[in-house]
C-alpha cells in the first residue's frame, strides 16, 4: 500500500458517510488538499512521501467519522443538559427491572449450583437482554422533548412552580375522591360491583370469585379500610383550601407509608380471596400500588432541596 | 497534570470561539483550503486541517461563502470567498469581537 492508496482509503471512509449529493465533490477536494498537505510535510521533513508518513498525517487529521461529522451541522439527539438525567433514569430503570426479574426467578427452587447457573442464564436471557427496551424508550422520549423545546421554546420556557400547588387542580382531586369512595365500597364488599353492573343477576361463580377469605376479613380488612377512608377527609381539606399545606403533605406521606405497610402485610400474610385467580390478581395490583407509591415517595425525597451552607471540614491540629 | 488538562480544555474552548471569525476574516479575498490554512498559520492562528476544511463547507451551506472550482498551476482547486451575507456577518462579528476584546483588556488589566 503506497501513500496514494492510504489517502484514497481515508477519503473513501470520510465520503461514504456524507450525503450522496455532496460526497463526490467533497471527496475530490479532500483528496487534493490531503495530498498537498502531505507533500508539504514531506518537504519540511526533507524526505519523500511514503505510506507510514501518510498514515501518521491522516491519524492527526482525525477519525473519518469525526471529520465527516464536521462537514454537517451538529446533530444532537439528547440535549447535553439532559445527559445526566438520561443516565440516572437509565440506571435506576434498569436496576428496578433487573431486581424484579431476579426476584421472580428466585421463587423457583434452587437445589444445586447447576440450578443457580440455569436460573442466572434464564435471568440474563429473559430479563437483562429484553430490558434494553428501557434505554430505547428513554432515548426516544428525551429526543422528542429536546425537539419540542427547540420547536416551541416559549411553551417550554422555565416557569415558577408553587410547591403547594395541586397537580391537575381541584378537578383531579375531586376525581381522586370519587375513586377513593369507590375503593371503600369495593373493599367493604367487592360483590357490590357485580350488583351494580348486573343488577344481582351475575353468575354464582362471579360472586364466589369475589368472596373474601376469612383470614383477610379478620386481620387486614379493617386496617386497609380505615387507612383508605382516612384519605377522604384529607382530600376534602385540600380541595377546600385549594393547596397542599406542609402539614397535609406530612399526613399524606404518613398515610401512604402506612397503606404500603398494610398492603405488604396483606400480600405476604395469606389469601385475600377464596378463589386463587382473584387472589393472585388483587395481590398483583397491591404490589403494583406499593411499588408506584414508594417510587413516588422516593422521587419526592430526592427532589427535596433544603438550602444549607456546607460546613467546612474540621482542620486537624497537630 | 490537572492544571495542564484544564488549560488545554479551556484554551480549546477559547480557540473554538474565534475559529469562525478568523476563517471569515481571511476569505475577504478568494482562497482555497490549503492556502487559507497557510494564511491563518502565518498570522499566528494555525487551525487543524481536519477542522478547517469541513468548516469551509459548513459556512458555504449556511450561505456565508461562495465557491468555485478553478484550474491553477495544472491542478483543480476549490476557491472560497465571502459573499454579501458573509461580509455583513463578518462586520458584525468583528464589532462584537472588538467589544469583547476591549472588555477583556479592562478585566485582565492588573490594578
3D structure, described in words:
The complex is a heterodimer of chains A (318) and B (111). Chain A has 318 residues and is mainly alpha-helical. Helices cover 72% and strands 0% of the residues of chain A. Chain A contains 14 helices and no strands. Chain A has helices at 3-15, 20-45, 51-61, 64-70, 83-106, 113-128, 133-151, 169-188, 192-198, 204-209, 214-218, 220-241, 246-269, 276-303. In chain A, α1 (3-15) runs antiparallel to α2 (20-45) and α5 (83-106) runs antiparallel to α7. The longest helix of chain A has 28 residues, at 276-303. With 111 residues, chain B is of the alpha+beta class. Helices cover 65% and strands 16% of the residues of chain B. Chain B contains four helices and three strands; from the N terminus they run αβααββα. Chain B has helices spanning 2-25, 33-42, 49-61, 84-108, and strands at 31-32, 65-72, 75-82. In chain B, strands 1-3-2 form a three-stranded antiparallel beta sheet. The model of chain B has no long low-confidence stretch (mean pLDDT 91). The A-B interface holds A 22, 26, 28-30, 32-34, 36-37, 40, 60-62, 66-67, 70-73 and B 33-34, 48-51, 53-55, 57-58, 61, 75-78.
Count of individual beta strands of chain A:
0
Low-confidence stretches of chain B: none
The separation of the N and C termini of chain A measures 68 Å
Assembly status = heterodimer
Approximate shape of chain B = globular
**What is the H/E order of chain B?**
HEHHEEH
Overall pLDDT confidence of chain A: 89
The Rg value of chain B, from CA coordinates, equals 16 Å
Measured distance between first and last alpha carbons of chain B: 30 Å
In N-to-C order, the SSE pattern of chain A is HHHHHHHHHHHHHH
Class by alpha and beta content of chain B: alpha+beta
The main β sheet of chain B shows up as: 3 strands, antiparallel
Q: Tell me how many strands of chain B there are.
A: 3
Major β-sheet annotation of chain A? none
